[in-house]
Design brief:
about 240 residues, TIM Barrel, eight-stranded parallel sheet
Length: about 240
C-alpha cells in the first residue's frame, strides 16, 4: 500500500468514525463536540500517527510502554495517552512520554507515578480504571475482569491521586467486560463517575467505549472514546 493510499484510507475511516460519534451524541441529546476521539495506534507505524495528526487527530494512545516510548518523541505536537495496564517500574517512562494515564488501579502505582512526576517536573493527568466485572458473564475464563479497581474502592484511590504531588485526578476509565451488555456495564460506570464528580468536581473525564461499543458508552456519558480497529484497521499482532 502506498503512502497516498494509506492516507486516503485513514481519511475515510476518520470520516466514518466522526460520523458515528456525532450521531451517537445527537441520539443521546448531547452536544456534538462532547466526546473526544483518542486514536489507539498500537502495532501501527509512526507514519500512521503522523498521518492522523495531519488529519486533525490531536489525541493518540498506546497500550504498550515500548511503543509509546518509541513514537512519542517523534510526534510531540499531539496529546499522548497511555491506556494499558502498567507496571510500577514503567512509571517514569509513562510520565516522560504521556500526558494522560487511563489505567491507575492501585496505591503502589500512584506512589511510583508521583515520585516520577516530581522528579521529571511534570504533571500527569490520571484516570482511575474501574472494574466492571460484575456486569460480565460468570465464566471467569472469558477474562471479564479486564483490570481495574472495584467500584467500592474508587473513593479511597481517588483521594490518594488527588493528594499526590505531580498528579491530577482526571476521572475514570473502563472496558466493558467480554460478553456483557455494554449499555448496562457503562451504566454502572456512569454511577461511579457521578459519585466521583460529587467529591472531585474537576474529575469529569469518562473514558469508555471502543470500536464495537462507542454508541453505548456515549449514551452513558463517555467524554473520551478509545478507537483503534474502526480507525486504523486490523492490527498485526506483536511478538
Amino acid at each position: 500500500m502506498t503512502a497516498d493510499t494509506r492516507e486516503q484510507e485513514l481519511r475515510d475511516n476518520l470520516t466514518s468514525v466522526r460520523e458515528r460519534i456525532q450521531a451517537a451524541c445527537v441520539a443521546a441529546g448531547r452536544p456534538e463536540d462532547a466526546v473526544t476521539l483518542v486514536a489507539i495506534t498500537k502495532t501501527f507505524p509512526v507514519s500512521d500517527v503522523r498521518a492522523l495528526a495531519a488529519l486533525g487527530v490531536r489525541d493518540l494512545g498506546e497500550n504498550r510502554e515500548q511503543e509509546l516510548k518509541a513514537k512519542a518523541p517523534d510526534c510531540q505536537d499531539v496529546t499522548w495517552h497511555f491506556v494499558g495496564q502498567l507496571q510500577s517500574n514503567k512509571a517514569r517512562s509513562i510520565v516522560r512520554n504521556a500526558s494522560v494515564l487511563h489505567s491507575v488501579d492501585r496505591s503502589s502505582l500512584v506512589k511510583a507515578l508521583s515520585r516520577a512526576a516530581v522528579d521529571e517536573g511534570r504533571v500527569l493527568r490520571c484516570l482511575l480504571q474501574v472494574s466492571l466485572a460484575e456486569y460480565g458473564p460468570a465464566d471467569a475464563a472469558t477474562g471479564v475482569g479486564r483490570g481495574g479497581v472495584a467500584p467500592a474502592d474508587v473513593p479511597e484511590l481517588a483521594a490518594e491521586v488527588a493528594g499526590a504531588d505531580g498528579l491530577e485526578l482526571g476521572g475514570v476509565m473502563a472496558v466493558a467486560p467480554l460478553g456483557s451488555d455494554p449499555d448496562e456495564a457503562f451504566g454502572g460506570l456512569e454511577v461511579v463517575a457521578s459519585r466521583l464528580r460529587s467529591e472531585h468536581p474537576g474529575a469529569n473525564w469518562v473514558s469508555a467505549g471502543m470500536s464495537g461499543d462507542l454508541e453505548a458508552a456515549i449514551r452513558r456519558g463517555a467524554t473520551h472514546v478509545r478507537l483503534g480497529r474502526a480507525l486504523l484497521g486490523t492490527r498485526t499482532p506483536l511478538g
